[in-house]
Amino acid sequence: MGAGCGAKTELDVPPLVPPPPECATDSDCDDRRYCTGVEVCREERCVRGVAVQCDDGDRCTDDRCDEATRACTFTMATRDNDGDGRRGPRPGTQPGTPDACGDDCNDDDRTVFPGATEVCNGRDDNCNGVIDDNATFTPAGPDVAVSEPSLAPSSVGGVAWSGSRYLASFWGYERGAAHVYFTARNADGSAAQRPETRRITISEPDAYGAGVAWTGRELGIVWQDRRDGDYEIYFNRLNAEGEKLGPDQRISFARGFSINPSITWTGEDFVVAWQDERDSSVGNPNGRNFEIYLQRIDREGRQLDDNVRLTRDPANSESPVLAFGGGSVGVAWLDGRTGTPNASGARAIFFAPLTAALQRMAPDLRVTPMGFDAVSPTIAFNRDRWVIAWHDAAERSADREIWGAVRSASGSELVAPLRLTTDNAFSRYPSLVPLGDRVMVVWADDRMADGYDIWARMFDASLRPLSMEQRVTMASRDSVYPLTALGPNGDIGVLFRDQREGRWRVRFTRLQCALPRQ
What is the CA radius of gyration of the chain? Predict the structure, then answer.
C-alpha cells in the first residue's frame, strides 16, 4: 500500500546541514591576548588557551598577568602610605602577624613604626602593643571646676579626648529640673570655649547622663530623658564645639523605664546599651524587672535594625557598660539572677562578648564569685583581653574594695577575681585606662579622715600591682565617680564629682605621664 495522503517518505526529509567550520588554522582562533594563553584550531573548532598562571609563591605580593608588557608582574600587597619605611598590614590582618605582610601599626603617621622612639603621647609609637612604655603617672594639680555653681547638684556623664581638647558631658539642675550639658576643656582642664557649658537637652522634664564616644570626627552622646513621660534613651551627635549635628533621636520605644545608657564606638558604628523595663511581667512579685538592650547606630546617626535584647533572665539585669576592642564589643552588667534581686549579697557581674554586629560570641558569663554584692561594673579591652572591675558592697563583707578579673577575647577566664585595693576603708567606683601591657585603675576611697578622694594605681595585664597607690585629689570633702580618658602628652584626664563647696559639682584633674630618661 502506498503512503497516505500528505505523509512524507524518508526521501522527502531534508538532509542535516553541518555547521560551518570555525577555523582552518590556529591563527583563526587567536584572540590577540597574551594572558588568556594560546588558542588552537582542532577539527575546525577553536579551543581556548590555558590562561597564564602568575604565582611567585610569595603571599605578600599581588600576582597578575600584564597585557601591556606580556609578562607576569609581582607587586607588594601592602603600602607605605606615610613614607616612614615600614609597610602597613594587609586589610583584615594585624600588624606584624605572618600573613599581614606589614608591621606598621599606624601607616598614616610617619612617627609611628616598629623601632620608633616612645614618647608620652597616649599612643603606641613603636608598635609593640604598649602605650607609653614604662611611663609613670603622677597627679598634676590643682583640679579645676567644670560645672557652674548654679547647676548644682551636678554629676559626671562622660569624657573623651578629641585630639585637641577634652570633651565632657555632665548633668545638673536648672530651674528645678535635671539637664545634660557639654563642655570643652584644654589639656589642663581650663575652659576651651565661651560660654563654658552648652545645654544639650531642651525639654523641661528631667534628663540624666550622658555617656560619650568620640569617632575622630564627632562625639556620640546618649542619655535618659523623661520628655515622653517614662524615661527613654536618647542619642545625638555633636561636633567638637558641642553643636548638635541633627535632631535628638529616641532609641527606646517601650512601656516602662529605659535608663542607665552606655556607649562605645567600633570604628564603623556606635553601640548603645541600657537597662529596659519593657519585659516586666504583670504581677511580678519583685516589682520592676529590667533586661539589657542594645542598639547599633551608624556614623551618620542612622539606627541599624531594631533594639537587640541581650539578657533573658527573670531577675534584674542593670547598669550595662560597654567597650570595643579586638573587633568585638564587650558588655558587662549588674545581675540579680543568683539570688533575690537587690538583696545584699545577691548581685553579680556578668559579661558577654559580641561581634561588632551584636551577634553573641558566648553565653552570659558570670564574673564575680558567690557571696559578693557586686556593683559599679566597668570594662576595658587591653591589647588582647577584657579587663572588668567593680566594687563589693556587701555589708557583711570585710572586703568592700575594688576587685578585678581578666577574660580572653572570647570570654574565657584568664585571671580569676582579685582584690585590687588594700585598705580597710570603702573603695568604690572604679575606672580603667588600658595601656597594652598594663592598666591604670582609678577609684574613690575614704581611707583618709576627710572623706572620699580619688586614688590611682598601675597594674600589669594580669592585675598584679606595678606601682604604689596614689592619692590624686586632696579636698576636704568627698570626691567620687571618676571617669577617665587618655589625653595629650600621654596624660590621663579624670572627670569626677566633688562636694568640697557644700553642693555637688563636677571637677577635672589629670595624671601626668613621664617616661624614664633614656
Answer: 31
User: What pTM does this model have?
Assistant: 0.85
Domains of the chain: total: 1
> How far apart are the C-alpha atoms of 330 and 354, rounded to whole Å?
6
Task: Give one word for 261, left, alpha or beta, with left for phi > 0 and alpha for psi -120 to 50.
Answer: beta
In which residue ranges of the chain is pLDDT below 70? 1-13, 281-287, 338-345, 394-399, 518
C-alpha closest to that of 373 among 388, 390, 386: 390
**Count of other CB atoms within 10 angstroms of residue 141:** 12
Give the other-Cβ count within 10 Å of 390's Cβ: 29
Length of the chain: 518
CA torsion sign, 444 to 446 to 447 to 448? positive
Distance, in Å, from the CA atom of 412 to the CA atom of 351, rounded to the nearest integer, reads 10
Please, are residues 386 and 379 in contact by the beta-carbon 8 Å criterion?
yes
Distance CA 310, CA 273 (A): 9
CATH number assigned to the domain comprising residue 324: 2.130.10.10
Q: Does the CA dihedral 496-499-501-503 come out positive or negative?
A: positive
Structural domain including 250 reads 136-514
Q: What is the pLDDT of residue 232?
A: 96
The grid coordinates of residue 425 equal: 576603708
What sign results for the dihedral spanned by CA atoms 269, 197, 473, 134?
positive
Q: Which candidate, 384, 391, 461, places its Cα nearest to that of 421? A: 391
d(CA 382, CA 159): 19
